[in-house]
Each structure stands twice: as C-alpha cells, then as structure tokens.
From TrEMBL:
InterPro entries: Kinase-like_dom_sf (IPR011009), Prot_kinase_dom (IPR000719), Ser/Thr_kinase_AS (IPR008271). The gene is Cnig_chr_II.g8136. This is Protein kinase domain-containing protein. Residues 1-10 have a biased composition (Pro residues). GO terms for cellular component: cytoplasm.
C-alpha cells in the first residue's frame, strides 16, 4: 500500500481527526508544486509543506463566498471518515480569500488515467479495484453517509493499485437516528445518476451510490459511459434496456459473470437492484482469478 503522508505537525486548531482553522492565518504553510486538476469548484494543486518539503499533499482550493457553508459541510463530513478506501483529509485552512483543504496525495491520478485510451482494464484488475470501491461505499453507508457523486474522476489511484474515494462535496447524511432520510434532488454527474432521480419525486440515498458504482465498473470493462442520462429518451440508455449494446465490441468481451453483476446493479426496479451485500456475494466478486 502506498505510504500515507503524516498529518501536518503544526495544526491551527484540532477538530476531531482533522484540523480546521476558524480564523484566517497570516502565512500559508504549503508551497505549490503543480496543478493536479480544475473544476467548477476551483482547483486542486499538488503542494508540499514548507517545514517538511518531502511530504506531498493534494490541496483543494476554493474561493470564500456563496459556497463557504458547502465547503465547511464537505470538510465536516470528510474529517469523520476513516477507512482504507477513503482518501484522508488533514486540515481546512482559511488563507486570504480562499479555503485550502489538505488531503492525501494519490500518485497515480484518477481511475480514468489508469484505463488505456483504446482498450479496457484487465478483468483481474477491474475486480480488484471494484472490490475496494464497494468496500468504501459500504463503509460510508455504515456511517450514515451517501456520496452521491461516485464516478471515475472521484476515484483516486495509488501505485500499488489501491483505490480511494474522494470529493465529498455532494455527500449527505441519509440517516436521522434510525430514520432514513429521502432525497428530492440529485447531485453529481448526470451520466452517473440513477433513473429514479429523473422519474421520482423522492428516492433513497444508498441505491444511488450502488448504481453509480455499477457504471464505474462499466467504464473499467468497456471504457465508455454508455449514456448521458438514464431516461427513456436517451439513445444509449434505451439501447441498454433493449439489450442492443451486448452484441457490440467491447461488450462482447466482458466476462459473463461481470456482465451478470452489471445487469443486476443497473436495475431500474429498486426491489431487484443489488444491495452491497448481494454485490459482495456475487459470483464475479467471489471468483479467484489466481
């Protein structure tokens, strides 16, 4: 497993497992190495701590403004999570007019970077990574959290083929004590949204992550997002439902056990869509390729 950077040695203020500064600081204790990514939220930079430059961190930088409460909510959810398939977050710093969320650095990029441009992942590697994804989602749900934006860009990879879930900007609590909270709006990338988001007024949280995980598996084994939205009017989704995709390459090369699992995960009927436990016990995840 890739070595995890040590938490910063001079936290501004301790808050549970991670640190958060409640007031602006005078000097940023990190120095930029290069940009890792960019999105609507801001940027993610690779940075080193000035007092220990050998340690590298991924730092999510966002402007203070209308999203301030969302940034704090994301950090407060993320800092409570501790699992081998969840990226670590170390601290949230307010500096000048920006928030800096300091996280573990994944040295092999995101899942999309691992998938060959004109090919697919080896089935053994896809199985290994998918097991880790399901373990991470299972842990999140056990903590009463749904991610709501599972996709290859939010799955980070380490050298030893270790996968970790990142980006909790859309994550929400779905339990209030023992009472499950229903959602009325979707989140994240629409191409990974479950069909009930588009067709129902209210829907459960955990099945959304399971559906998205099924599409991640499709991306690994087929190297494409087969539809833009899981709605009747989408040509790709309509072709999937009619079984027309299965006669095309590379669908014809997908392991039959994996194809069966995908079909059970991407099931519109929530009473038939596989649960985490059913996925864990599926023939494909139980199969030993060694």
């Amino acid at each position: 497993m890739a070595p995890t950077p040590k938490p910063p040695k001079t936290p501004v203020k301790k808050v549970s497992k991670a640190q958060s500064s409640q007031d602006p600081i005078q000097k940023l204790p990190y120095k930029k190495i290069r940009q890792l990514g960019k999105g609507g939220f801001g940027v993610v930079d690779l940075m080193k701590r000035t007092t220990s430059p050998k340690e590298k961190f991924a730092v999510k930088i966002q402007q203070i403004g209308k999203r301030t409460n969302k940034i704090k909510e994301e950090f407060n959810i993320h800092k409570e999570l501790e699992h081998e398939s969840i990226i670590k977050v170390f601290e949230l710093i307010q500096f000048e007019n920006q928030y800096f969320m300091v996280m573990e650095y994944a040295n092999k990029g995101v899942l999309w970077d691992l998938i060959p441009k004109d090919d697919v992942l080896e089935v053994e590697l896809a199985q290994k990574l998918f097991k880790q994804l399901i373990a991470g989602i299972k842990y999140l749900h056990s903590q009463g959290i749904v991610h709501r934006d599972i996709k290859p860009d939010n799955l980070l990879i380490f050298k030893e083929e270790i996968l970790k879930i990142c980006d909790f900007g859309s994550a929400k609590k779905y339990l209030n004590g023992d009472q499950e909270i229903l959602f009325s709006t979707g989140a994240g990338s629409k191409s990974f949204n479950a069909p009930e988001i588009f067709s129902e007024d209210e829907f459960r949280g955990p099945p959304l992550d399971i559906w998205a995980a099924g599409l991640v598996l499709v991306c690994m084994l087929v190297n494409s997002q087969p539809w833009e939205r899981a709605t009747p009017g989408d040509k790709g989704y309509s072709a999937w439902k009619r079984g027309k995709l299965f006669n095309e390459w590379p669908w014809t090369e997908v392991d039959p056990m994996a194809m069966s699992l995908i079909s059970w995960i991407l099931m519109e009927d929530l009473n038939r869509r596989y649960t985490i436990e059913q996925i864990e016990q599926s023939d494909w995840l139980q199969y030993d390729y060694d």
